[in-house]
Specification:
globular; binds iron/sulfur cluster; 21% strand; alpha/beta; 25% helix; 9-stranded mixed sheet; 11 helices; TIM Barrel
Length: 406
Protein backbone atom coordinates (compact mmCIF):
# COMPACT_ATOMS: atom_id res chain seq x y z
CA UNK A 1 0.00 0.00 0.00
CA UNK A 2 1.25 3.51 -0.85
CA UNK A 3 2.03 5.54 2.24
CA UNK A 4 1.53 9.23 2.85
CA UNK A 5 4.72 11.22 3.20
CA UNK A 6 5.63 12.09 6.78
CA UNK A 7 4.72 15.61 7.87
CA UNK A 8 7.58 18.10 7.95
CA UNK A 9 6.40 20.28 10.81
CA UNK A 10 2.84 19.48 11.67
CA UNK A 11 0.86 22.15 13.39
CA UNK A 12 -0.28 20.97 16.81
CA UNK A 13 -4.01 20.36 17.15
CA UNK A 14 -4.40 23.21 19.69
CA UNK A 15 -2.97 25.69 17.20
CA UNK A 16 -5.35 24.52 14.50
CA UNK A 17 -8.25 24.63 16.96
CA UNK A 18 -7.38 28.19 17.93
CA UNK A 19 -7.25 29.26 14.26
CA UNK A 20 -10.70 27.75 13.79
CA UNK A 21 -12.00 29.44 16.96
CA UNK A 22 -10.84 32.85 15.64
CA UNK A 23 -13.12 32.42 12.64
CA UNK A 24 -16.24 31.80 14.71
CA UNK A 25 -17.88 35.20 14.93
CA UNK A 26 -20.92 36.68 16.64
CA UNK A 27 -23.66 38.21 14.51
CA UNK A 28 -26.37 39.98 16.50
CA UNK A 29 -28.59 40.34 13.42
CA UNK A 30 -29.09 36.60 12.91
CA UNK A 31 -32.71 35.50 13.00
CA UNK A 32 -35.08 32.99 11.44
CA UNK A 33 -37.08 35.82 9.87
CA UNK A 34 -34.94 36.14 6.76
CA UNK A 35 -36.23 34.22 3.73
CA UNK A 36 -32.64 33.11 3.12
CA UNK A 37 -32.31 31.32 6.47
CA UNK A 38 -33.38 27.66 6.51
CA UNK A 39 -33.15 24.96 9.17
CA UNK A 40 -30.72 22.08 8.65
CA UNK A 41 -30.42 18.62 10.15
CA UNK A 42 -26.74 17.65 10.48
CA UNK A 43 -26.01 18.94 14.01
CA UNK A 44 -26.35 17.91 17.65
CA UNK A 45 -26.45 19.49 21.07
CA UNK A 46 -23.39 19.23 23.35
CA UNK A 47 -23.46 18.84 27.13
CA UNK A 48 -22.30 22.42 27.62
CA UNK A 49 -25.32 23.74 25.70
CA UNK A 50 -23.49 24.58 22.49
CA UNK A 51 -24.67 23.17 19.16
CA UNK A 52 -22.16 21.27 17.03
CA UNK A 53 -22.45 21.47 13.23
CA UNK A 54 -21.78 18.01 11.78
CA UNK A 55 -21.51 18.92 8.10
CA UNK A 56 -17.75 19.16 7.77
CA UNK A 57 -14.80 17.98 9.89
CA UNK A 58 -14.38 21.42 11.48
CA UNK A 59 -17.32 20.44 13.71
CA UNK A 60 -17.90 24.07 14.75
CA UNK A 61 -19.38 24.36 18.24
CA UNK A 62 -21.67 27.35 18.32
CA UNK A 63 -23.84 29.29 20.69
CA UNK A 64 -26.94 31.18 19.57
CA UNK A 65 -25.95 34.18 17.47
CA UNK A 66 -22.62 32.76 16.28
CA UNK A 67 -21.56 31.97 12.74
CA UNK A 68 -19.34 28.96 11.98
CA UNK A 69 -15.93 28.99 10.33
CA UNK A 70 -17.58 28.96 6.88
CA UNK A 71 -19.61 32.05 7.85
CA UNK A 72 -22.79 30.87 6.10
CA UNK A 73 -23.92 28.31 8.70
CA UNK A 74 -24.90 29.68 12.06
CA UNK A 75 -26.66 28.89 15.31
CA UNK A 76 -30.13 30.40 15.75
CA UNK A 77 -32.77 29.24 18.23
CA UNK A 78 -30.62 26.30 19.34
CA UNK A 79 -30.22 24.83 15.88
CA UNK A 80 -27.79 25.13 12.97
CA UNK A 81 -29.19 27.05 10.02
CA UNK A 82 -27.99 27.88 6.53
CA UNK A 83 -28.13 31.65 6.04
CA UNK A 84 -27.65 31.88 2.27
CA UNK A 85 -30.35 29.64 0.84
CA UNK A 86 -31.19 30.94 -2.63
CA UNK A 87 -28.39 33.49 -2.77
CA UNK A 88 -25.48 33.38 -5.15
CA UNK A 89 -22.32 35.23 -6.04
CA UNK A 90 -23.37 35.20 -9.70
CA UNK A 91 -23.95 32.78 -12.55
CA UNK A 92 -21.82 31.97 -15.60
CA UNK A 93 -21.98 29.46 -18.40
CA UNK A 94 -18.60 27.73 -18.69
CA UNK A 95 -17.26 24.77 -20.65
CA UNK A 96 -17.45 21.61 -18.52
CA UNK A 97 -13.70 21.22 -19.15
CA UNK A 98 -13.17 24.27 -16.94
CA UNK A 99 -14.45 22.54 -13.75
CA UNK A 100 -12.24 20.60 -14.78
CA UNK A 101 -14.05 17.49 -16.02
CA UNK A 102 -12.63 15.99 -19.23
CA UNK A 103 -14.59 12.72 -19.20
CA UNK A 104 -18.09 13.98 -18.40
CA UNK A 105 -20.20 15.17 -21.37
CA UNK A 106 -17.19 16.76 -23.13
CA UNK A 107 -17.73 20.02 -24.96
CA UNK A 108 -20.99 20.86 -23.18
CA UNK A 109 -21.90 24.09 -21.37
CA UNK A 110 -22.42 24.08 -17.61
CA UNK A 111 -24.31 26.73 -15.64
CA UNK A 112 -21.93 27.52 -12.76
CA UNK A 113 -22.44 29.35 -9.52
CA UNK A 114 -21.26 29.65 -5.94
CA UNK A 115 -22.38 31.44 -2.81
CA UNK A 116 -20.32 33.12 -0.09
CA UNK A 117 -17.95 31.63 2.48
CA UNK A 118 -15.85 28.46 2.63
CA UNK A 119 -14.97 25.77 5.15
CA UNK A 120 -11.26 25.91 4.31
CA UNK A 121 -8.81 28.76 4.80
CA UNK A 122 -6.40 28.26 1.90
CA UNK A 123 -3.72 30.94 1.74
CA UNK A 124 -3.54 30.57 -2.05
CA UNK A 125 -7.30 30.76 -2.68
CA UNK A 126 -8.00 31.91 -6.23
CA UNK A 127 -11.65 32.73 -5.49
CA UNK A 128 -11.03 34.52 -2.20
CA UNK A 129 -13.37 37.40 -3.02
CA UNK A 130 -16.17 34.80 -2.86
CA UNK A 131 -14.85 32.29 -0.36
CA UNK A 132 -13.82 34.96 2.15
CA UNK A 133 -16.80 37.16 1.49
CA UNK A 134 -18.62 38.33 4.58
CA UNK A 135 -20.93 40.46 2.46
CA UNK A 136 -23.80 38.02 2.15
CA UNK A 137 -26.23 40.91 1.87
CA UNK A 138 -24.61 42.08 -1.33
CA UNK A 139 -24.57 38.74 -3.14
CA UNK A 140 -25.55 39.69 -6.64
CA UNK A 141 -28.30 37.23 -7.53
CA UNK A 142 -30.82 35.09 -5.79
CA UNK A 143 -32.98 32.36 -7.20
CA UNK A 144 -35.14 29.47 -6.12
CA UNK A 145 -33.85 26.08 -7.30
CA UNK A 146 -36.53 25.84 -9.98
CA UNK A 147 -35.32 29.09 -11.56
CA UNK A 148 -31.78 27.73 -11.86
CA UNK A 149 -33.03 24.52 -13.48
CA UNK A 150 -35.22 26.53 -15.87
CA UNK A 151 -32.30 28.81 -16.78
CA UNK A 152 -30.03 25.82 -17.42
CA UNK A 153 -32.65 24.21 -19.67
CA UNK A 154 -33.48 27.37 -21.64
CA UNK A 155 -29.80 28.24 -22.11
CA UNK A 156 -28.89 24.78 -23.40
CA UNK A 157 -26.74 23.76 -20.44
CA UNK A 158 -26.41 20.03 -19.85
CA UNK A 159 -25.45 20.44 -16.23
CA UNK A 160 -25.32 22.84 -13.31
CA UNK A 161 -22.11 23.15 -11.27
CA UNK A 162 -21.74 24.21 -7.65
CA UNK A 163 -18.37 25.84 -7.80
CA UNK A 164 -16.26 28.94 -6.90
CA UNK A 165 -16.75 28.00 -3.24
CA UNK A 166 -17.44 24.61 -1.67
CA UNK A 167 -21.06 23.37 -1.92
CA UNK A 168 -20.52 21.34 1.27
CA UNK A 169 -21.37 24.49 3.25
CA UNK A 170 -24.60 25.21 1.36
CA UNK A 171 -25.58 21.63 0.74
CA UNK A 172 -29.32 22.06 1.45
CA UNK A 173 -29.56 24.60 -1.36
CA UNK A 174 -27.32 22.53 -3.69
CA UNK A 175 -29.46 19.42 -3.12
CA UNK A 176 -32.68 21.28 -3.90
CA UNK A 177 -31.12 22.73 -7.06
CA UNK A 178 -29.89 19.25 -8.10
CA UNK A 179 -33.38 17.80 -7.62
CA UNK A 180 -35.01 20.61 -9.63
CA UNK A 181 -32.42 19.99 -12.36
CA UNK A 182 -33.02 16.24 -12.38
CA UNK A 183 -36.70 16.88 -13.14
CA UNK A 184 -35.62 18.67 -16.32
CA UNK A 185 -32.91 16.18 -17.32
CA UNK A 186 -30.05 18.47 -16.25
CA UNK A 187 -27.14 16.90 -14.32
CA UNK A 188 -25.56 18.22 -11.15
CA UNK A 189 -21.81 18.69 -10.67
CA UNK A 190 -20.02 19.40 -7.37
CA UNK A 191 -16.63 21.08 -7.31
CA UNK A 192 -15.38 20.43 -3.82
CA UNK A 193 -12.38 20.09 -1.55
CA UNK A 194 -13.92 16.92 -0.11
CA UNK A 195 -13.86 17.94 3.59
CA UNK A 196 -17.24 16.44 4.47
CA UNK A 197 -18.63 14.36 7.35
CA UNK A 198 -19.91 10.91 6.35
CA UNK A 199 -23.63 11.35 7.10
CA UNK A 200 -23.96 14.76 5.43
CA UNK A 201 -21.79 13.52 2.56
CA UNK A 202 -24.00 10.50 1.90
CA UNK A 203 -27.05 12.73 1.65
CA UNK A 204 -25.27 15.20 -0.64
CA UNK A 205 -23.92 12.70 -3.17
CA UNK A 206 -27.25 10.95 -3.51
CA UNK A 207 -28.16 13.91 -5.76
CA UNK A 208 -24.87 14.53 -7.59
CA UNK A 209 -23.98 13.12 -10.99
CA UNK A 210 -20.35 14.18 -11.12
CA UNK A 211 -17.69 15.81 -8.98
CA UNK A 212 -14.26 17.28 -9.19
CA UNK A 213 -12.42 16.83 -5.91
CA UNK A 214 -9.53 19.14 -5.14
CA UNK A 215 -6.76 17.04 -3.59
CA UNK A 216 -4.62 19.96 -2.53
CA UNK A 217 -1.52 18.02 -1.50
CA UNK A 218 -0.52 14.63 -0.13
CA UNK A 219 0.76 15.71 3.28
CA UNK A 220 -1.26 16.51 6.36
CA UNK A 221 1.28 19.24 7.09
CA UNK A 222 0.28 21.14 3.93
CA UNK A 223 -3.41 20.89 4.80
CA UNK A 224 -2.87 22.14 8.33
CA UNK A 225 -0.36 24.89 7.59
CA UNK A 226 -1.72 26.25 4.32
CA UNK A 227 -5.43 25.36 4.35
CA UNK A 228 -6.33 25.05 8.06
CA UNK A 229 -7.66 21.60 7.17
CA UNK A 230 -6.73 17.93 7.28
CA UNK A 231 -5.76 15.44 4.56
CA UNK A 232 -7.46 12.28 5.81
CA UNK A 233 -11.11 13.45 5.41
CA UNK A 234 -10.40 14.24 1.75
CA UNK A 235 -8.91 10.79 1.14
CA UNK A 236 -11.95 9.34 2.87
CA UNK A 237 -14.31 11.23 0.54
CA UNK A 238 -12.36 9.96 -2.49
CA UNK A 239 -12.59 6.35 -1.25
CA UNK A 240 -16.29 6.87 -0.56
CA UNK A 241 -16.98 8.22 -4.06
CA UNK A 242 -15.16 5.31 -5.67
CA UNK A 243 -16.51 2.47 -3.60
CA UNK A 244 -19.95 3.60 -2.45
CA UNK A 245 -21.42 5.76 -5.23
CA UNK A 246 -21.89 5.90 -8.98
CA UNK A 247 -20.83 9.54 -9.12
CA UNK A 248 -18.35 10.21 -11.92
CA UNK A 249 -15.39 12.04 -10.39
CA UNK A 250 -12.05 13.50 -11.36
CA UNK A 251 -9.27 14.92 -9.18
CA UNK A 252 -7.47 18.25 -9.35
CA UNK A 253 -4.06 18.89 -7.79
CA UNK A 254 -2.83 22.51 -7.89
CA UNK A 255 0.97 22.43 -7.83
CA UNK A 256 2.61 25.18 -5.77
CA UNK A 257 6.39 25.54 -6.12
CA UNK A 258 8.25 24.08 -3.11
CA UNK A 259 5.05 23.36 -1.21
CA UNK A 260 3.47 20.25 -2.74
CA UNK A 261 5.26 19.66 -6.05
CA UNK A 262 8.18 17.37 -5.17
CA UNK A 263 8.57 14.22 -7.30
CA UNK A 264 8.40 12.16 -4.08
CA UNK A 265 5.03 13.64 -3.11
CA UNK A 266 3.60 13.21 -6.62
CA UNK A 267 4.89 9.64 -6.67
CA UNK A 268 3.26 8.81 -3.31
CA UNK A 269 -0.02 10.53 -4.21
CA UNK A 270 -0.43 8.89 -7.60
CA UNK A 271 0.48 5.44 -6.23
CA UNK A 272 -2.23 5.96 -3.59
CA UNK A 273 -4.78 6.93 -6.26
CA UNK A 274 -4.02 3.86 -8.36
CA UNK A 275 -4.14 1.49 -5.38
CA UNK A 276 -7.17 2.96 -3.62
CA UNK A 277 -9.25 4.37 -6.47
CA UNK A 278 -8.03 2.51 -9.54
CA UNK A 279 -6.26 3.69 -12.71
CA UNK A 280 -9.30 5.20 -14.47
CA UNK A 281 -9.77 8.29 -12.28
CA UNK A 282 -8.66 11.32 -14.35
CA UNK A 283 -6.12 13.55 -12.60
CA UNK A 284 -5.55 17.22 -13.47
CA UNK A 285 -2.29 18.91 -12.46
CA UNK A 286 -2.92 22.64 -12.60
CA UNK A 287 -0.63 25.65 -12.41
CA UNK A 288 -0.57 28.02 -9.44
CA UNK A 289 -0.46 31.78 -9.80
CA UNK A 290 0.25 34.10 -6.84
CA UNK A 291 -2.96 35.15 -5.10
CA UNK A 292 -4.56 36.16 -1.78
CA UNK A 293 -2.07 35.47 1.04
CA UNK A 294 0.46 33.63 -1.08
CA UNK A 295 2.01 36.33 -3.23
CA UNK A 296 5.59 35.27 -2.46
CA UNK A 297 5.58 32.14 -4.62
CA UNK A 298 6.30 32.11 -8.35
CA UNK A 299 3.94 30.63 -10.93
CA UNK A 300 4.31 26.88 -11.43
CA UNK A 301 6.83 26.19 -14.22
CA UNK A 302 5.22 24.19 -17.08
CA UNK A 303 8.00 21.60 -16.70
CA UNK A 304 6.79 20.81 -13.15
CA UNK A 305 3.35 20.00 -14.52
CA UNK A 306 4.77 17.84 -17.29
CA UNK A 307 7.12 16.04 -14.88
CA UNK A 308 4.22 15.32 -12.52
CA UNK A 309 2.16 14.00 -15.41
CA UNK A 310 5.00 11.66 -16.41
CA UNK A 311 5.28 10.31 -12.86
CA UNK A 312 1.53 9.73 -12.63
CA UNK A 313 1.45 7.89 -15.95
CA UNK A 314 4.46 5.76 -15.00
CA UNK A 315 2.59 4.81 -11.82
CA UNK A 316 -0.31 3.53 -13.92
CA UNK A 317 -2.84 6.37 -14.08
CA UNK A 318 -4.48 6.29 -17.50
CA UNK A 319 -5.82 9.82 -17.90
CA UNK A 320 -3.55 12.57 -16.61
CA UNK A 321 -3.81 16.21 -17.67
CA UNK A 322 -2.01 19.50 -17.28
CA UNK A 323 -4.05 22.68 -16.78
CA UNK A 324 -3.69 26.48 -16.77
CA UNK A 325 -0.87 26.26 -19.35
CA UNK A 326 -0.75 25.82 -23.14
CA UNK A 327 -0.02 22.12 -23.56
CA UNK A 328 -2.08 20.30 -26.22
CA UNK A 329 -0.30 17.02 -25.52
CA UNK A 330 -0.97 17.24 -21.79
CA UNK A 331 -4.61 18.13 -22.41
CA UNK A 332 -5.41 15.33 -24.86
CA UNK A 333 -7.03 11.99 -24.01
CA UNK A 334 -5.24 8.91 -25.31
CA UNK A 335 -6.31 5.27 -25.39
CA UNK A 336 -4.57 3.64 -22.45
CA UNK A 337 -3.98 0.43 -24.42
CA UNK A 338 -2.77 1.54 -27.88
CA UNK A 339 -2.09 5.26 -27.19
CA UNK A 340 -4.36 6.36 -30.05
CA UNK A 341 -5.50 10.00 -29.73
CA UNK A 342 -9.14 9.95 -28.62
CA UNK A 343 -9.89 13.61 -27.79
CA UNK A 344 -7.65 16.52 -28.75
CA UNK A 345 -8.03 19.79 -26.80
CA UNK A 346 -6.51 23.23 -26.91
CA UNK A 347 -7.32 24.83 -23.61
CA UNK A 348 -11.09 24.25 -23.32
CA UNK A 349 -11.75 23.69 -27.03
CA UNK A 350 -12.16 20.19 -28.41
CA UNK A 351 -10.15 20.17 -31.63
CA UNK A 352 -10.26 16.41 -32.38
CA UNK A 353 -12.88 13.78 -31.53
CA UNK A 354 -12.02 10.20 -32.40
CA UNK A 355 -14.09 8.29 -29.83
CA UNK A 356 -16.65 5.96 -31.37
CA UNK A 357 -20.35 6.62 -30.56
CA UNK A 358 -20.00 3.80 -28.00
CA UNK A 359 -17.16 5.63 -26.22
CA UNK A 360 -14.42 3.27 -27.38
CA UNK A 361 -11.10 3.63 -29.16
CA UNK A 362 -11.58 3.37 -32.96
CA UNK A 363 -8.20 1.67 -33.27
CA UNK A 364 -8.30 -1.14 -30.68
CA UNK A 365 -11.87 -1.02 -29.32
CA UNK A 366 -10.89 -0.33 -25.68
CA UNK A 367 -13.50 1.60 -23.71
CA UNK A 368 -12.53 5.04 -22.45
CA UNK A 369 -13.70 5.60 -18.87
CA UNK A 370 -16.25 8.38 -18.43
CA UNK A 371 -19.72 9.62 -19.32
CA UNK A 372 -19.84 10.19 -23.07
CA UNK A 373 -22.51 10.78 -25.68
CA UNK A 374 -22.13 9.77 -29.34
CA UNK A 375 -21.02 13.30 -30.25
CA UNK A 376 -19.31 15.98 -28.14
CA UNK A 377 -20.87 19.35 -27.44
CA UNK A 378 -19.66 22.42 -29.30
CA UNK A 379 -19.67 25.06 -26.58
CA UNK A 380 -15.92 25.77 -26.91
CA UNK A 381 -14.13 27.96 -24.39
CA UNK A 382 -16.73 30.73 -24.09
CA UNK A 383 -17.69 32.17 -20.72
CA UNK A 384 -21.05 33.93 -20.56
CA UNK A 385 -22.49 35.72 -17.54
CA UNK A 386 -26.18 35.05 -16.81
CA UNK A 387 -28.70 37.03 -14.75
CA UNK A 388 -31.22 34.81 -13.00
CA UNK A 389 -33.82 37.49 -12.22
CA UNK A 390 -35.80 36.90 -15.39
CA UNK A 391 -35.98 33.13 -14.74
CA UNK A 392 -36.85 33.66 -11.08
CA UNK A 393 -39.86 35.71 -12.16
CA UNK A 394 -41.12 32.82 -14.28
CA UNK A 395 -41.24 30.28 -11.47
CA UNK A 396 -43.00 30.32 -8.14
CA UNK A 397 -41.82 33.19 -5.95
CA UNK A 398 -38.99 32.44 -3.54
CA UNK A 399 -40.69 31.31 -0.40
CA UNK A 400 -37.41 31.01 1.40
CA UNK A 401 -38.00 28.52 4.11
CA UNK A 402 -37.93 24.88 3.17
CA UNK A 403 -37.90 22.37 5.94
CA UNK A 404 -34.62 20.52 5.84
CA UNK A 405 -34.72 19.56 9.45
CA UNK A 406 -37.11 16.66 9.03
S1 LIG B 1 -20.06 23.52 7.55
FE1 LIG B 1 -19.41 25.52 8.39
S2 LIG B 1 -20.36 25.64 10.42
FE2 LIG B 1 -20.47 23.49 9.76
S3 LIG B 1 -18.64 22.53 10.67
FE3 LIG B 1 -18.10 23.16 8.58
S4 LIG B 1 -17.20 25.24 8.79
FE4 LIG B 1 -18.30 24.78 10.70
Amino acid sequence: MAEQLPSKESQPDEELASEIEKNIVADPDLSMDSPFVVPTKHWHRLDDGRIQCDVCPRLCKLRNGQRGFCFVRACVNDQIVLTTYGRSSGYCIDPIEKKPLNHFLPGTPVLSFGTAGCNLGCKFCQNWDISKSREVETLSDYAPPEAIALAAERLGCRSVAFTYNDPVIFQEYAIDVAQACQRRGIRAVAVTAGEHCPEARAEFYRYMDAANVDLKAFTDDFYRRICLGRLEPVLDTLRYLKHETNVWFEITNLLIPDENDSPEEIDAMTKWIVEELGPDVPLHFTAFHPDYRMMDKPRTPPETLRRSRRIARENGLRYVYTGNIYDPEGQATYCHVCNHLLIGRVNYDIVQWNLTPEGTCPHCGTRCAGVFEPQPGSWGSKRVAVRLAEFARQVAPLTGRTDHAF
